[in-house]
Specification:
Blueprint: E1 36-42, E2 45-53, E3 79-80, E4 84-85, E5 93-98, E6 101-105, H1 107-113, E7 120-127, E8 137-145, H2 151-164, E9 167-174, E10 177-186, E11 189-195, H3 204-208, H4 218-230, H5 243-256, H6 276-287, H7 292-300
Helix pairs in contact: 4-6
């Protein structure tokens, strides 16, 4: 026999809503305003779609600068170091070609080279996801159908991509910038990511060229591998929280209610371990009792094949 739960009669606490536009207690809702609308096209097949941000910054905390004598919010006034305050409407854009030497560019000249927003995201190529270096992945978006007219085409494109296990590449102009997009199936819909252009990515070889070739002790590597195995687990993003943001919210809540802020606990003292081997062995011992069954299972398992160097 089915039972029904009684509705709680306890009064709900009012949600803390500071005057700051970035409300720390804001509820995350589905975005209502797309960042781009147009058509997704694969050869002669197309469907109306819209891009929505897949991430949000609404929970971020930001502060305004105030005059401590009046608590009035400070206005930033553009100022010339020689003549003083300047009207913002009178300012022009300049590109510095040498120290204190600029090329002045007018708004009319910028309009002449500005790319118009395109209304078609045309798929140009399909690639394997593993061939796209993680350095190139940028912002994620939801690519969702608009209206019912193109639902069949949207579904066909999504299903074909899912079965072929491929990612689509296409280009679109948003906010006067041409962006390379990577599209992948996700559930009933499609995800789209902006990809960085080649000239936006620093070559890793350049960054790592000064690191000397090192011959590492295989015993230390073995211990490090066991530490990795002890600490492995699934990716659970809900278990990772921004502790600084949480501390800020608590600080704001306490000050709002006139409470004294709580001082954070000091960090633990630095270890006196003097060698890398000692540090590795102590790290292994700290987690040693956490997974005895796994260690035993490993001892009876065949040796792991070493990677080719």
């Amino acid at each position: 026999m089915a039972t029904t739960k009684k509705k709680s009669t306890r009064a709900k606490k009012p949600v803390h809503k500071p005057s700051n536009e970035n409300d720390p207690g804001a509820t995350r809702k589905r975005p209502t305003r797309p960042v781009w609308q147009g058509n997704l096209r694969l050869s002669l097949v197309s469907c109306p779609v819209a891009l929505f941000n897949a991430t949000t910054r609404t929970s971020d905390i930001s502060f305004h600068l105030l005059n401590p004598e009046t608590n009035n919010r400070i206005r930033m006034i553009p100022t010339d170091p020689e003549t003083g305050p300047v009207e913002r409407s009178q300012l022009v854009k300049g590109y510095e070609i040498a120290k204190n030497h600029y090329v002045i560019v007018s708004n009319e000249e910028l309009d002449e080279v500005k790319l118009e927003t395109t209304h078609t995201l045309e798929i140009e190529r399909f690639v394997d996801a593993s061939t796209i270096d993680r350095l190139y992945w940028n912002d994620p978006y939801f690519l969702v159908p608009q209206g019912n007219d193109g639902l069949d085409a949207y579904g066909v494109i999504r299903e074909a991509m899912a079965q072929e296990d491929r990612i689509a590449l296409g280009r679109v102009v948003m906010h006067t910038r041409e962006r390379l997009m990577a599209i992948e199936p996700r559930g009933k819909g499609l995800l789209a990511y902006t990809l960085r252009m080649a000239n936006e990515v620093v070559n890793p070889a350049v960054m790592f060229e000064d690191i000397p070739n090192m011959k590492v002790d295989p015993r230390m590597v073995d211990i490090a591998q066991r530490i990795i195995e002890q600490q492995e687990g699934p990716f659970e993003p809900q278990t990772f929280k921004d502790r600084y943001e949480e501390a800020l919210r608590e600080l704001i809540r306490r000050k709002e209610h006139g409470e004294a802020p709580v001082t954070a606990e000091p960090a633990p003292p630095a270890s006196n371990v003097v060698s890398l081997m000692d540090a590795l062995q102590k790290s292994l011992q700290r987690k040693g009792s956490a997974a005895p069954a796994k260690s035993h299972a490993k001892s009876n398992a065949p040796a792991k094949r070493k990677r080719a160097r």
